[in-house]
Amino acid sequence: MNRRHFMISGLMAGAAVTLFPLKFAFADEKAAEKIEEIHMTDDEWKKKLTPQQYDVLRCEGTERPGSSPLLDEHRKGKFVCAGCGFPLFSSDQKFDSGTGWPSFFDVIPAHVGTSTDTKLFMQRTEYHCARCGGHQGHVFSDGPAPTGLRYCNNGVALKFEPEEK
Q1: Nearest-5° angle of CA 81, CA 86, CA 88?
Q2: Where are the beta strands (DSSP E) in 7-148?
Q3: Which residue from 5, 6, 48, 150 lies 20 to 30 Å from 85 (Cα-Cα)?
Q4: Binning pLDDT at 50, 70 and 90, where does residue 124 land?
Q5: ω into 146 cis (within 30 of 0)
Q6: Which residues, other chains included, contact 85 with Cβ-Cβ below 8 Å and sequence gap of 6+?
Q7: Please, what are the domains in the chain?
Q8: How far is CA 57 from CA 74, 98, 111, 113, 121, in A?
C-alpha cells in the first residue's frame, strides 16, 4: 500500500465514522413496555426542581464533575429520575468510571430514550428519561462488560432509592 492509498483509506474511514455513527443496541429499542409520559410546562418544572436540576434535566446542562454525592453511593437499590421518580438504573449496573460522574453499564429496559447531540462539534448519544424526557447524560462505548457501554449520568438528575430490607 502506498502513501496515497493509505491517506485515501484513512479519509474514507473517517468519513464513514462521521456520516454513519456507531449504533448502540439500546434496551429501549427492544422492549415493548408502554411508558406513560409526563408533560409539564416550564413554569411547573421550575417550581418542582432546584435551579441546578432544572438546568440539567430541562436545559441539558452538565454538573461539575466530582460534585455528586451519588458517586459514593454503594447500597443496593434503584437510581430514579429526579424529575419524575421513574427508575432508570439498578445499583447492580453502577460502576466507578473515574470520570467524576455516576456511571452505569446498562439501563432498566425501555426506561431511557436516546437522541443525537452535536452541540460540542462532535456527534454524541444523549439519553433521557423515557417518562418525562429529562436529560440524564451521554452514553459512550468505553464501558465494562457485559455491555461495553458507559452511561455517564449527571448526579443531580438522579435520586437514589435504597432497597427495602
Answers
A1: 70
A2: 77-81, 87-90, 94-95, 103-104, 112-117, 124-129, 135-140
A3: 150
A4: confident
A5: yes
A6: 159
A7: 24-162 (2.170.150.20)
A8: 24, 23, 15, 14, 21
Strand partners, 95: 103
Task: Give catalytic residues, as residue numbers.
Answer: 152
Cα distances from 110 to residues 35, 44, 117, 132, 148, in angstroms, run 8, 26, 20, 13, 18
Instruction: Label residue 22 by pLDDT band (50, 70, 90).
Output: very low
CA distances from 24 to 54, 60, 76, 81, 150 (A): 28, 21, 27, 22, 11
Percent of the chain with pLDDT over 90: 70
Q: What is the C-alpha to C-alpha distance for residues 62 and 15, in angstroms, rounded to an integer?
A: 29
Bridge-based pairing state of the strands 103-104 and 158-162:
unpaired
Q: To which residue does cell 429499542 refer? A: 29
- How far CA 45 is from CA of 50, 53, 79, 117, 130, in Å, comes to 9, 9, 20, 22, 16
The DSSP bridge partners found for residue 117 are 124
